[in-house]
Write a structure and sequence with these properties.
By secondary structure, the protein is α/β, with parallel strands linked by helices. The chain has 19 helices and 11 strands. Helix 11 packs across helix 13.
């Protein structure tokens, strides 16, 4: 199999070739390695490889499993492989090696996937761009020099760039949906607790983080969820393992009541400017859904965006502070000497100055929003919104400037952090961090399933995804709706594997 031929299939298609005997597991592994060796030097999506281990694991895969030896990539964050490096995009963890596999890696292997390496992420997954100082910055395969988003930016670049047909990813505030939108892919964030996390981190960011994948096709996403869903033995949410995600796709979605919004309640307080092309993307999705027979109405989500942004950042600060203490213990390096980026250090320092009362008050806002959205979904089955305010930014455009980094360094000075919080630093951080991506955090806070669908491209040809948020626990219905839209739009024909190669020539 040639690389170009390999890139024409999704993961399900490749596994069908293996089961029919048209391609061997070894051949799949080798062609994926060839694709990574040829294209990753320009794409920079993969931060480390494990080719020899993958070759051995490929030979042992049962070809009757769901994915039958299909190659994939993990993310350099949370997705531990026993004895192998996991740096979380940070120089501070460059020498750290976990002792056991993460639950997602275990279940992905049981489903027949073979992990060839790990993809780039921003330091500790803290940004919606993937530009860590310790590792190369991945390019958006649609246009060199542009960002694939974050924090699963390396995963999206790897799939859109033709390295693997699907890549494992995680979403704590849009980290699956934002890269999927920027890279013209399907990105599904399951319901909170639907997929397992490591026991010691079973409620990463208070349950905002959910792991799954970025894929070319809806059927790949559904097939993977079929095999990785269900809480782990120590999970905080007793979510029973389900089946039927894949089987439900061929059935046409029943007529649904769908709300459509430009997301103003979530964006206005942050000063977000919605690009006209993003408006076109949402309007196009609304018209398509109406033409498909669904009942479509324009209606904003009934939430207070300013309070949600503040509560999200409050818990974000506290979680980073705790994470840095954990890194210090694991590495034996004093907290003040950790090799971390200025923004990370400032965020962690601010987090140490939050009171337990402030932290809990922020957490309660999540439950208020969940109740509001539950009432909203008594009227509507799904909510259509933007994923991001515009198409992908240039690399470097959204990373803190040198001047801002110096200011952030001052925030990390003992004694100034509490003063900064009192002076409104949290509101300023929220505007800086979320202004371009204020629409995705809602589903993380409420725990609802949500997805980005590649339904539009701007005048320059860059993708713009459209987000659809579903009722809590109703992952199957959301995937079914996605499959119908995929059949209607046939978005896979636009993937840019060859175009990116030509740009680099």
């Amino acid at each position: 199999m040639r690389v170009e031929e390999y890139q024409g299939f999704d993961a399900t298609g490749l596994s069908e070739l293996v089961r029919r005997g048209e391609v061997s597991r070894k051949e799949l592994c080798e062609v994926a390695i060839e694709a990574i060796e040829q294209r990753n030097p320009a794409l920079r999506a993969v931060v480390r490889t494990r080719f020899e281990q993958a070759r051995r694991e490929s030979r042992a895969v049962d070809q009757n499993t769901c994915f039958a030896g299909v190659p994939t990539l993990g993310k350099d964050l949370l997705m531990a492989i026993a004895g192998e490096p996991l740096a979380a995009g940070s120089a501070s963890l460059a020498g750290w090696r976990p002792l056991e596999d993460s639950p997602l890696i275990t279940r992905a292997r049981q489903a027949g996937l073979v992990v060839l390496g790990q993809t780039a992420t921003p330091e500790f997954g803290l940004m919606a761009i993937t530009e860590p100082k310790a590792f190369p910055h991945p390019h958006n395969p649609w246009r060199a020099g542009y960002s694939p988003g974050g924090s699963s930016g390396g995963a999206a670049a790897a799939v859109a760039g033709g390295l693997v047909p699907l890549a494992l990813a995680a979403d704590g505030g849009g980290s699956i949906r934002i890269p999927a939108s920027y890279c013209g892919l399907f990105g599904f964030k399951p319901t909170r607790g639907r997929t397992p996390l490591p026991p010691a981190q079973a409620e990463v960011w208070q349950g905002a983080v959910v792991e799954h994948a970025i894929t070319k096709s809806v059927r790949d996403s559904a097939a993977l969820l079929e095999h990785i869903n269900g809480s782990g033995p120590c999970g905080p949410y007793p979510v029973a393992r389900e089946t039927g995600y894949l089987a439900a796709l061929p059935s046409p979605s029943p007529r649904r009541r769908i709300a459509v919004s430009f997301g103003d309640p979530l964006s206005q307080s942050l000063g977000t400017r919605l690009d006209p092309e993003t408006r076109k993307a949402v309007e196009h999705a609304a018209k398509t859904l109406a033409d498909m027979g669904h009942e479509v109405s324009w209606c904003d989500p009934p939430v207070d965006g300013a309070r949600l942004a503040s509560s999200y950042l409050t818990l974000y600060l506290g979680q980073v502070a705790a994470d840095l203490e954990w890194v210090s213990r694991e590495t034996g390096v004093a907290l003040g000497r950790l090799d971390i980026e200025p923004a990370t250090r400032a965020i962690g320092r601010l987090g140490t100055k939050l009171s337990a009362r402030e932290y809990e008050r922020g957490r309660r806002e999540w439950f208020v929003a969940a109740e509001q959205m539950s009432a909203f979904h008594q009227r509507f089955d799904a909510l259509v919104m933007p994923v991001t305010a515009s198409s992908a930014p240039r690399i470097g455009e959204l990373y803190p400037s040198a001047t801002r980094e110096r200011l952030l360094t001052l925030l990390a000075v003992p004694g100034l952090s509490r003063l900064a919080l009192r002076a409104g630093a949290l509101k300023h951080l929220a505007a800086q961090a979320l202004a371009r991506t204020p629409f995705t955090q809602l589903a993380n806070l409420t725990g609802q399933p949500a997805m980005s669908l590649p339904l539009h491209r701007d005048a320059g040809g860059l993708p713009i995804g459209v987000q659809i948020v579903g009722r809590f626990g109703d992952d199957r219905a959301l995937l079914q709706l996605a499959h119908d839209l995929e059949e209607c739009e046939n978005w896979q024909r636009h993937l840019p594997c060859q175009a990116f190669s030509a740009q680099q020539a």
